[in-house]
Amino acid sequence: MKKGQNSTLQYTFLQAMLWATYGFLFSYANPFLTEKLGLSDTLSGIILCAATGASCLLQPVLTAATDRTRLNVRWVLLLSSAFTAICAGASMAELPIAATTVLFAGACVGLQVLPSFTNALGMARMRSGEQINFGLSRGVGSICFGVSARLAPIAIAHMGLNGVPAAGGTTALLFLVAVLVMKENRSLRGAQSADTESEPSPAAEFFRKHKKFVGMLLAAVLLYVGHNVLSNCMLRIAQSKLTNAALEEATGVQGTALLIAALVELPTMFLFTNIVKKIRCDILLFASCVFMTLRLLLSLVLPGAVGLYIAQTAQMLGYAVFAVSTVYYAGSVIEKRNVVKGQTYLGTANTLGCMFAYALGGTLIDAVGVSNMLLVCIAVSVVGCALALLCLERVEKTVGA
């Protein structure tokens, strides 16, 4: 691709298929393991926590590979999406429970590698001169997440819970096609553009140089715990708001809640590029931390399915701002040669938050119930807000805005 070319359309296709896969495969991972395979919420949480932990360990390894070898970000995306699709498809076969569990967990590992490298690809190309409206692309991704999360109960009604890996595997294949459509930029190699003056920093040097960014990564981990609990445990939260509801009704409420959360993200994400020109990126990022915590609180205190739906509107100024502003923030406070590393560490923070969410969510639900589980997550999120306030750096010029 030529420098200065507008790649928003191709990149939007990429984000759309990524988050559609999340809406189908990841949002319904817990129901697949508990309702189809008969696992407890605790065991399901442990398995998904292990899968998330594996992807967390894998991301820095793959980042180092893009720094030191001919493997570039595009090839990481191709291999990870292919692995996700293959494992998802194989988990539909009539196999022993243990084998099905391993395959489905494998699909979740591959899927969780994709977001950070997808973001890294976009930011690297923006810094090399290509035009990409990241907020618009990510907003379309949210639309696809919400639509797929709402379509999943329909697939489940027609195919049983095999509809989860069937739909997720299909969109993972379409993601692979999206990567192929977004042709390789030969001016980029891994994290670098052709005019990069030096090699990416080793991890230890990166952490020493960017201590405040590391603090922000820790804050992101804590905030992602609550955010991911709302996604991963939404079925149980929905059931707690209903009385003697059948699984089909509860999954319907789950899908509607996730769809509302996705839809309210759209105005913020679509307009973010204009908003960040008027309000500093670091201010937007801290405000989003507060609203992520508010969404948890409202999900706890508002009664009934309607109350749960209302709580999801906090997503507009919460995760919607957080998901986009963190990408721009990292691209602005981290030097160009470490752009992939910074974005990948943000993805790792999300993965760690998801891992802890799985470990805490199912275990706490079984031990103390849904309400107390949400109270714990609110406390964790408040600590994340405080840490973000201490560690955020002032951003005078936002890269890509």
Q: Return Rg in Å.
A: 20 Å
Q: In which order are the strands of the major sheet placed? A: 1-2
Report the structural category: mainly alpha
The largest pleated sheet is described as: 2 strands, antiparallel
**Helical fraction:** over 70%
Indicate the proportion of strand residues: under 5%
Low-confidence stretches: 188-197
The best one-word shape is globular
Number of helices: 16
Let me know the number of strands: 2
Mean pLDDT: 85
End-to-end CA span = 21 Å
Order of helices and strands: HHHHHHHEEHHHHHHHHH
Task: Write a structural description.
The protein is mainly alpha-helical and 401 residues long. It is 78% helix and 1% strand. The chain contains 16 helices and two strands. It has helices at 8-26, 29-36, 41-68, 73-90, 97-127, 134-159, 163-181, 203-209, 211-232, 234-241, 247-275, 281-301, 304-311, 319-333, 339-368, 370-391; strands at 188-189, 192-193. It has a two-stranded antiparallel ribbon. α2 (29-36) crosses α3, α9 (211-232) crosses α15 (339-368) and α9 (211-232) packs antiparallel against α16 (370-391). The two termini are 21 Å apart.
